Amino acid sequence: MVRVFSFCLYGPPNPRYYPLPIVQNIHLIATHYPDWKVYLYVSPDVDSGFLQEVALFPNVVLKHTGKLGTINRLERLFAIEDPDVETMFVRDADSRVHWKDRWAINDFMSKPQFVAHVIRDHNEHNARILAGMWGMHKGAGVGIKDLFDLYLKNPIDLGYGKDGVDQSFLGSYVYPCVKSRLLVHYSNQRALNGEHVMEFPFPFTESFHCGKVDGATFVDAVPATPRQPDVRRALINGRFKLR
Hints:
The chain has about 240 residues and is of the alpha/beta class. About 30% of the residues lie in helices and about 20% in strands. It has an 8-stranded mixed beta sheet with strand order 3-2-1-4-6-5-7-8. Helix 2 links the parallel strand 2 and strand 3. The radius of gyration is 17 Å and the shape is globular. This is Glycosyltransferase. It comes from viral metagenome.
């Protein structure tokens, strides 16, 4: 069984997504999660030369979807359906798996009572599940493809429009299935009622946060000194044990 980070790419080279951004993510994951894989869901119009080069990375698994456009954002959600995948984290190619993201991932991985994970760091992170900042164990017992088939029969738009089908699907169909076993790491009061939550023990900054669109000058900065977490809130909403 393997653990994976799942990304998607579609269209010609774009400095926001590839080549450099996704290659930076591949290197970050290889460094900090050397036994994990990067599943890269790609459309037919992704540059073939780039794909030949990226396929040389030993941690990369290319998944050719045969589909064009934003539908590939949905394809990346299905990595957990691979029989070899034990754990999946879905990420956007234009952000980075940096130290703050890794801190949240590692905290979630250390708490086996939870089967799904969501990050809401910025004050604009209002979705129940941000499509590029969540993860799930296969042990959750949630069939993503089966749920998506139900969604297609009865689509629910949570206000994200045509380009946000992935987020509407996750919020309306997946979230209710995992909410009771979901861990949310958050800043800026982005916690919802009834969730198990843990506030990030780092000061929030606009210049460095989870989900931020990072450019070519990205640096995996040294972590700030953690402040003491709000233990009272963590115990009430998160039901965590004191260490």
